[in-house]
Specification:
Elements: E1 8-12, E2 16-21, E3 28-35, E4 42-46, E5 55-56, E6 62-64, E7 70-73, E8 76-78, H1 82-91, E9 96-100, H2 113-120, E10 124-130, E11 133-136, E12 140-144, E13 147-152, E14 157-164, E15 172-178, H3 181-188, E16 194-196, H4 200-205, E17 218-220, H5 236-249, E18 256-263, H6 267-279, E19 284-287
Parallel strand pairs: 4-9, 11-18, 14-18, 16-17
Antiparallel strand pairs: 1-10, 2-3, 3-9, 4-5, 6-7, 7-8, 11-19, 12-13, 13-18, 14-15
Helix pairs in contact: 1-5, 5-6
Length: 316
């Protein structure tokens, strides 16, 4: 009997390989995604660091959230993991060993599209072990600098992301999505990271964005998008923030059954809400069967819970 989709853990059928450059280091990176046994989770191996220790992509190994999400263990780290984790989380891939020869996941085109294509080169296969979900039992919420992030009980996997930038090229944008593989492919995977031309020197002074270019970043000038091809979506900015949230919430170590809402969020607050949830044993539990997601939403609409305001770029 065929296993019901979503109820059992998955991995990849074969090893697949990709190369690119690190957006912050500017250095070349080679990375392979390898099949793994049930209950392995997503594990990074820095093959340039010798035998080393595996770095599990879990909140207890979170190292930094400045400009990207970084995990580390025993002094070895891997940065800019959010788009790759979003791909695994969005497509429903539970167990992968990621071998990488540098300290940063390749940026590719600034979205998750290349990682989706990479997984499509092989096949997602179902394992016999049941898939575990982190089910939200009661609301948890954090607030910071006029923004908030919260997780609420919900019969599905919903993301409600609201951003607010001073730049008129972005302004206030909201996006709501019930996550599944088809939705991830269609609505989120191609949304690229973005930044402001005026901030380039600031990042360079910190040794960041050394590999950033128009090939992997949507760059905004004072009054226009610099990239000749323009945007892939009219609201690509909030879609990318949603993509980041899907990746960062994967640090729970299992798919989260619940609704995630954020206003003026970013990597730091995404990770902090996972930490806050898991620290409260009354707020969550493991379950081994997903609840049927509701389908009563309209994309790009959400209830605004805070008064509109203008804020500068989120550098988290």
């Amino acid at each position: 009997m065929a296993k019901r989709q979503g109820l059992h853990q998955t991995t990849l059928r074969d090893r697949v390989v990709v190369s690119g450059i690190g957006v912050h280091s500017g250095k070349p990176v080679a990375m392979s995604l390898n099949p793994a046994e049930a209950d392995t989770g997503i594990v990074f191996h820095r093959i340039d660091a010798g035998a080393g220790h595996p770095i599990h992509a879990r909140i207890e190994h979170l190292h930094a959230t400045d400009s990207c999400t970084t995990v580390a263990f025993a002094g070895v780290s891997v940065a800019t993991i959010e788009h790759l984790l979003a791909t695994f989380n969005g497509l429903g891939v539970d167990n992968v060993v990621v071998e990488i020869d540098a300290a940063e996941v390749p940026m590719m085109d600034g979205s998750a599209a290349a990682f989706v294509d990479l997984i499509d080169q092989t096949e997602i296969v179902t394992l016999s072990a049941p898939r575990r979900f982190v089910k939200v039992l009661k609301p948890v919420r954090i607030e910071h600098a006029g923004g908030f992030s919260e997780l609420l009980p919900f019969d599905g996997r919903r993301f409600e992301i609201d951003i607010d930038f001073e730049s008129p090229l972005i302004g206030r944008q909201a996006f709501v999505v019930d996550l599944d593989p088809a939705v991830f492919r269609r609505d989120l995977a191609r949304a690229r990271t973005f930044g402001f031309l005026k901030d380039v020197e600031f990042y360079w002074s910190r040794g960041l964005a050394l590999g950033s270019s128009l090939d992997n970043t949507v760059v905004l000038g004072d009054d226009k998008v610099i990239n000749p091809e323009g945007l892939r979506f009219a609201d690509e900015f909030v879609r990318h923030k949603t993509l980041d949230a899907v990746g960062d919430l994967a640090l729970a170590g299992a798919p989260i059954l619940g609704a995630y809402r954020s206003y003026r969020g970013g990597h730091r607050m995404n990770a902090k809400i996972v930490e806050t949830l898991l620290a409260d044993s009354d707020a969550w539990t493991y379950v081994e069967a997903p609840l049927a997601p509701k389908r009563d939403i309209v994309h790009d609409q959400m209830t605004v819970r805070l008064p509109a305001a203008a804020f500068g770029p989120d550098k988290s």
